[in-house]
Amino acid sequence: MPHALRIRDAQAADAALLAEWASAMARETEHKRLDADTVLAGVRAGIADPARARYLVAMRDAPLAGNELVSVPVGTLMLTREWSDWRNGEWWWIQSVYVPPAHRRQGVFAALYRHVERQARDTSGVVGLRLYVERDNENAQRTYRALGMDDAGYRIFEVEF
Q1: CA 67, CA 147: separation in Å to the nearest integer?
Q2: pLDDT tens digits, residue range 103-157?
Q3: How many domains does the chain have?
């Protein structure tokens, strides 16, 4: 039986792993190769400045030789905030979700999501949670629906500089 998950805020020492995971997610979901130095600098900037981002890391104890356990990271997500004048409050955006393949289908994202949802509901002025998902990523969409999220009906347009 897998050990229970714990969710914690990311620390500066997590930056290299989170940058590696962000790059892996971009390759897997969007077939994009990101510049490693840029991603690492971005993750470091987000961890250093909570106004920019907040990273959470899911941890699970794994057995070592004998009865000893070591706590290992098994997934992550990043939160950013968006002001809504319509609602006079903030949306929390879930971004940069990544669970390594060996840890998928074990409730890692669900644990991260429930942790964020509890904190959002307990924080005055937060009006809800949002995330975006690739149109063809049916597995992720099923997961999000199972957690109570609905398709908001928006498409995202962008211009990249």
Answers
A1: 35
A2: 999 999 999 999 999 999 999 999 999 999 988 889 889 999 999 999 998 988 9
A3: 1
Reported as half-sphere exposure (CB side, CA atoms, 13 A), residue 26 has a value of 12
Please say whether the beta carbons of 64 and 70 come within 8 A. Answer: yes
d(C-alpha 4, C-alpha 10), whole Å:
18
Asked if residue 81 is part of any domain, the answer here is yes
C-beta contacts of 15-18 below 8 A and 24+ residues apart:
15/40, 15/43, 15/44, 15/47, 16/40, 17/73, 18/43, 18/47, 18/55, 18/57, 18/76, 18/96
- For residue 121, tell me if it sits in a domain: yes
Looking at residue 34, which CATH number applies to its domain?
3.40.630.30
Structural domain boundaries, residue 55: 5-146
Residue 65: DSSP 8-state: S
Side chain identity at 52, as an amino acid letter?
R
With respect to residue 160, please indicate whether it lies within any of the assigned structural domains: no
Extended strands (E) in 85-157? 89-98, 126-131
Domain assignment of residue 49, yes or no: yes
Give the global pTM.
0.91
User: In whole angstroms, what is the distance from residue 73 CA to residue 103 CA?
Assistant: 10
